[in-house]
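Morning run. Coffee first, then this:
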Amino acid sequence: MGHREQLLAGAKRCLYERGYARTTARDIVAASGTNLASIGYHFGSKEALLNAAVMEAFEEWGEELERAMPGQGGSGESGEEQLVAMWTRVTKSFQLHRPLLVASIEAFAQAEHAPELRKQLADDYERARGAMAEFIAPGDAREDNRVARAVGSLHLAMLAGLSLQWLLDSERAPTGQDMVDALRAVSQGLGDFTPDVTGATVAGDDDPGSGDPVVNEA
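And here it is:
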């Protein structure tokens, strides 16, 4: 293993043990068995090295999440059972990668001032949308690229939100069954509202007092 690989491995170790913001160049040198000059030679700066380590750690976690996708829990499962199993496996991955989740939040804050990191994270999210759509989008939705991407985006947003809830309070964060029950309830609730041509939303039941539909202005 060359110095570059050693530095990446050491930086990832520091991300898990110390977090993004608290890791110093000397921490990485100690963890990698290299020297300070190697950081500048291979990456230019400690920040660039940490950014590369974050992206590599994300890729490794992403491979684990792919194994959590529907269809990985065994044959004979219904679609609902596969989704419950998927979200359950996802939350278990949070336990293994809690330090990475915390480090990723710190990295997102850094991305506001680091255009290259921001682009890397944005590109990574775009790939994740496609991957989630491939596993989760229903067969008919996959025929429409826009809808398939939207399905992937929705589940990616749920993944990000669930990870934050789990970091703050794992005991009260939603379970896999909670996630699927909520999706079903929202899906059923969509049938209770019909968009008006004016952009207003018309409730399914008429106002008993006037006989006219109840209109909630958008």
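The first strand starts at residue 193 and ends at 195. Good start to the day.
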